[in-house]
């Protein structure tokens, strides 16, 4: 098997629509569109948005609306969900919503599906999420596939628009269970290693070993999502990363907050046990200068043999965030 490198695979963006401290959702949406437009120019393949609820620091709760906003402001970039939490929605509604998007933006919409609630249990109840919803995820994926298929023309319930349109379905996951499902359905697989790294290699192996070709996909196709914070120097990247680390630490301790301004790396102190917990959750985070980022991502790609890398970058200053993605885009263009 030929060894893949960063310059030989596709790169994409995962935008969590993070609201920074002192900002608001309006700023976030403006910055998301600006990032998407520049990512398109820099050669990125996809721009995905994630569904989250009841989080003051995340503005992507109306994921479908944001996908339409980003798609309307770009022309070639694939735009989609990373993902839609299917147990929060009726499959028919998802088929109709994404059918509408695919009608407005033909051959550019991706439908990534996850089974988690994207929130806490109390909010999941407010979403009218059924207690058995996660258990029914495989059946709901197949129901959704049926609504989007040309073969449903004689069905008593049909999706208009949606039926027969080009809307690739992806299975998203952070565990081996999702790998088995993606393989059995012959669907592409995206793993959330940016926050759940523990089972990445095992899940990829299971997916590849059990993959069954389908009408949508003939061979396994994998994406791994990672965190990248790139800057001109290692020190500057470490400083930018203090915002990211404080954000993830707030998640670990259950005190979610908005993205804070960076501080000097030497001022961002946690004791050894706290730092170990943070490192465990953010294992696949790449921080540094272009040379360091390129070296470490090439090692990651060689080991995982992924087909595409998707990047999340929680950086406080918008221009610094843009520059981080620009650096990665330039590294990807090196032949």
TrEMBL record:
GO terms for cellular component: cytosol. SUPFAM superfamilies: Bacterial luciferase-like. It holds the Pfam family Bac_luciferase. It comes from the Bacteria. One of its GO terms (molecular function) is oxidoreductase activity, acting on paired donors, with incorporation or reduction of molecular oxygen. Gene3D superfamilies: Luciferase-like domain. Residues 16-300 form the Luciferase-like domain. To bacterial alkanal monooxygenase alpha and beta chains. This is Luciferase-like monooxygenase. It comes from Flavobacterium glycines. The lineage of its organism: Bacteria, Pseudomonadati, Bacteroidota, Flavobacteriia, Flavobacteriales.
């Amino acid at each position: 098997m030929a060894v893949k490198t960063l310059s030989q695979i596709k790169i994409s963006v995962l935008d969590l629509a993070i609201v920074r401290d002192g900002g608001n959702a309006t700023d976030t949406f403006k910055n998301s569109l600006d990032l998407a437009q520049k990512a398109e120019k820099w050669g990125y393949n996809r721009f995905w948005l994630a569904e989250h609820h009841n989080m003051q620091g995340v503005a992507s709760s109306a994921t479908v609306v944001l996908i339409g906003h980003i798609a309307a402001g770009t022309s070639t970039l694939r735009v989609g969900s990373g993902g839609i939490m299917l147990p929060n929605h009726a499959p028919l509604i998802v088929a109709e919503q994404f059918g509408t998007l695919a009608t407005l933006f033909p051959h550019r919409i991706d439908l990534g599906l996850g089974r988690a609630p994207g929130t806490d249990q109390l909010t999941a109840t407010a979403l009218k999420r059924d207690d058995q919803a996660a258990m029914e995820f495989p059946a709901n994926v197949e129901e959704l596939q049926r609504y989007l298929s040309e073969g449903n023309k004689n069905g008593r319930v049909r999706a208009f628009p949606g039926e027969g349109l080009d809307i690739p379905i992806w299975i998203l996951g952070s565990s081996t269970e999702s790998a088995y499902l993606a393989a059995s359905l012959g669907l592409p697989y995206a793993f959330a290693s940016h926050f759940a790294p523990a089972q990445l290699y095992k899940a990829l192996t299971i997916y590849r070993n059990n993959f069954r070709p389908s009408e949508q996909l003939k061979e396994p196709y994998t994406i791994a999502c990672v965190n990248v914070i790139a800057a001109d120097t290692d020190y500057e990247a470490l400083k930018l990363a203090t915002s990211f680390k404080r954000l993830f630490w707030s998640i670990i301790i259950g005190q979610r907050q908005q993205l804070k301004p960076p501080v000097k790396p030497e001022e961002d102190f946690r004791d050894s046990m706290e730092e170990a917990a943070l490192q465990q959750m953010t294992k696949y985070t790449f921080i540094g200068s272009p040379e360091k980022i390129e070296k470490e991502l090439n090692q990651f790609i060689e080991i995982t043999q992924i087909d595409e890398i998707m990047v999340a970058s929680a950086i406080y200053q918008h221009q610094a965030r843009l520059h981080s993605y620009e650096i990665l885009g330039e590294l990807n263009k090196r032949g």
